[in-house]
Give the backbone structure.
Amino acid sequence: APAIATHTRLGLDRGQVSPADPRTHRLAGQPASMPSPASRAEEAKQSLRQRVVLSLRRRLLGAENKRFRDAAALVLDRPETVYLRDESAFLLGIINLMVTEAVVLTNPQGFWLWFLLWLPTLLLIRLWTYSRKGWQMFLLDFCYAANLLMVTALLTGSPVVFWAAFAVACGPVATAIVAWRNSLVFHDIDKTTTVVIHAFPALVAFCTRWFGLGPNGVPFCDSAWGPRVELMRRVWPKSAWEAAVADPGTPCEPIPSALELWVLGMVTYAVWQALYLLLTEVPWLLGSWLEGHDEVETSMRWLVRSKTGLLHRAARAVCEAVGFLGKEEELNSREVKTKFIFVSAQLIFTGITLLPGVMAAHWFEGCTTWLLLLLVGAAANGAQYYVQVFARRYAKSV
């Protein structure tokens, strides 16, 4: 009764609400906000989606509180699933190796098609797996830029782009196979992809330079026919090389000098490095985002933390020797000094490792031996991984 009397003294009926009523959060007399048709439709759609998801969970998983991703994770982690996945990956890896060898030996002119078939498939898988781990920034590294450059050369037919791609593919990118200890591990799609990323551009360059046609569709100008022409006659009797030998006046693709190739490779690397620093350091591009996401891995952060890595140890030893870095001084990937050290180290590494790429363009036997040594190194690293690392890890995982 007192509450009714109070409302009556305020001049309010039972259906009205006082201005201070916290249940409304609005002043008296203010019209109530009605949901718009669009918001009502969105709410209905969300409600329907939730009902469908809960119904599927109940029917397929046996309970509404179970998630499909958790159920999938349980299935994928089962020993029998691990066995099947790794056996399938191993089989595909062996098939890939056999087909790659067959294409190189029987139809090297067409190896670029095999390269274009595999590259996007593996890159999509790597983008998905690396994004889940916070490693997506690795896809901006120089080796991926070199693959893109080779694809551009194949699709555009530009001689300048081809020779730039040739120099970096047979030089620093191929050298990374042994420098970063790439391993030919057939059951591991991530390790196999790493080998493909570093080896396939060099194989494309090798097959195109020595057994195919130049970017303009004519043979390369090369006076050192010799034994290669005899080999081509036996294996590819209808090749473009025989036509070129039979008619010395056939138009041909000029080959840059050693110095021109080296400079072209260094300019290519410098352009990539400038674009990479611009993208990762400028705040309004990715700089601010990277500053706030320490969990995202980048090449700089990895090089700083990888104290046993070849580049880290070499760069630190040189900087300590010249007094640029203290013996106990810690490196920080955020500091300009650290960035200068590793950018300079990578520049020197690129300049040195471009020399095999230059050699590969002018010496067939040297190019063949160089690529074989790199691939044998990847196979040796894979053998070491299987014997010393994988056996113990696999026993624990299953």
In short: The longest helix spans residues 364-397. The CA atoms of residues 252 and 282 lie 45 Å apart.
